[in-house]
Amino acid sequence: MLQLFSPYVLGPQQKAELDERGHLVLPGIVSADARALLTEALKRIAALQEPFGYGRTEEPTPSKFAAEHDTFLASLIGHPELLALARSVLGHDIRYDHCVALNRLADNPGLRWHTHEYADDEPSLGFLRIFFYLNGFAADDGGLKAVPGSHLFRDSQILAQTDEELQRVWLDGKRHPLTGEPLRIEHLSSPPGTVILMWTHALHGVTPRKPTSATRWTVVYGYRNPGRPSKARWISEEFERRSLPGTEGLMSLY
Ligand SMILES: O=C(O)CCC(=O)C(=O)O
Ligand SMILES: [Fe+2]
Prior knowledge:
By secondary structure, the protein is an alpha+beta fold.
């Protein structure tokens, strides 16, 4: 069995940080073997994605359904270490939601500020995004940015093109519901092999990738507590029926 992570700590302190801030950075925890295999898999997905391009589309592209196009990516859905990580945050009763390749090539425009929906009115139902940043990123080069505390609003409708617009349309005057501090934008950076955990209602966006930079190799696995429909759930019926090792009971909507 592939070792996915080098030893890391996800104890009460880290969980409290995730719950208070909405995201948690686990720097460099992906094992060297997993890094290499994941990067190869993401290169295969990039080749399949090429004809579809990287613009916004409703099409079921290889990037969106990455695990369905790659045996290795599929094999991680039920990997004990990934499930243990997801369950240590969400509790035992979880479902797989999606696996999306988030490769960002040189000059990629990044991504506007947004949140994602799931059981907006039911905080007991969690949805966790587990991002694998295989070659890391700098804050100003395909970098994830987030607003600590924003997930507590469970507002799935927030959208803004720029930091300035976000400030104007949503951030101004808002305070962290737990700490009372004014909400503010945080630009993350991460070394290669970093995993970032994020509650799905956290407000986040991505800075553009520089024209001279190599591709940012990234994949996300989403898991959630069952109980509601999920708009992010991209699983074909055929894939749901396939019995992959370790995924028993994980693939259904409810
Ligand atoms: O590309 C990224 O780093 C983040 C993508 C994103 O917003 C998501 O998968 O929800
Ligand atoms: Fe997102």
